[in-house]
Amino acid sequence: MFPAQQNPFASAARSGMDNQIAFYNALTSTAIESMEKLATLNLTAMRASIEESAEATRQLLGAKNVQEFVALLASQARPTMEKAVAYSGHVSNIATGAQAELVKATEQRFSDVGRRTTQAAAEMMTKLPVSLDDLTAYIKAGFENANPNRLFAAAMPAARAAQEVVSASVTPMTQAAAQTAQAASTAADKKDGTSA
Question: Which domain of life is it from (predicted)?
Answer without folding.
Answer: Bacteria
